[in-house]
Amino acid sequence: MLTLYLKRGKDESLRRYHPWIFSGAVHHIDGHPEEGDLVRVVTADGDFIAVGHWQIGSIAVRVLTFADEPIDAAFWHSRLSTALSVRQAVGLAGREDNTTFRLVHGEGDMLPGLVVDVYGNTAVVQAHSVGMHVCRREIASALQGLEGLEIDNIYYKSETTLPFKADLGQENGFLVGGDADDVALENGLRFHIDWLRGQKTGFFVDQRDNRSLVEHYSRGRNVLNMFCYTGGFSVYAMRGGAAKVHSVDSSAKAVELVNANVELNFPGDSRHEAFAEDAFRFLQQMDDGAYDLIILDPPAFAKHKDALRNALKGYTRLNLRAFEKIRPGGVLFTFSCSQAVSKEQFRTAVFTAAAISGRSVRILHQLHQPADHPISIYHPEGEYLKGLVLYVE
To answer: N or C: which end of the chain has fewer CB atoms below 10 A?
Structure first.
């Protein structure tokens, strides 16, 4: 393992356990590491401070441990066991009515660059760094060895998440097994999980708690689920007793999937209809007051800081359309999953839309990511999902 020396005074954030080392903090390395290699990080005076994966870019090292320990089979087993213990402690793992949860959430579980979602007896592994890609088979082995979690299939899905400049030629595929049932349970509801071709790991696990809240508000309401993807909010709304549920997505494939998920849980139920249409066009053309519960859960409008200004304009425009159209006494669920957009910026965009609409609006709930997407107290950047539930007069 090569040694990386920090510039003098650049170890302060690491002493506060922040898991990133930026390239500007690096003085030199005693050798020429390949991207993904492990490096031992020391201060300008040669004192040990961390071990992590070396990578090319503004973030030079993603820290795996602040202890001087080997990154071996025992390390992976320990970290994954701790992650599982957290999910058991919050009541997500080990339940008969819920087999869907995130087991590893990057920095939140002290495994930066790694995501693992569990769907029944299948784990979907996603690497966001070359280092985690290099270690994928050790991670798969550790997953199989966890007590209290039966994993028969491990699907590796990192084609679109690894740095393209690394030129790894990576293809998605099973590391273990392959005969996997694509139906998983979430709070007693069944969902087809498209980990082969779907977005992220095949399902938006991070909205589970917020879907339950939609269920709570749905009784007797006409519900509009914009950017519906797999239809999670729609299925929960139907169980909550909605009078009507309409799902909208620009992707015809998503519309097929939401219809399949509704049929899986409510066969032959005529309350649901799905539309493959542009969201802004649909909102513009729909009748005023047609819906009294609207869900806006768009894809990330800003994946990086350079797109922030246009993203905030997009959030304002989208929410303005909803404020203009929603029935008086309606409830609006509105979200941003853009890490580059802060809670304050998102709230300002929504407040601006409310003011332009001239409607009286109250905040009922402020929403965020669930407990299986933990945020390290030393890494506040890990907070990405934010949402508001609004009552509109």
So the answer is: C
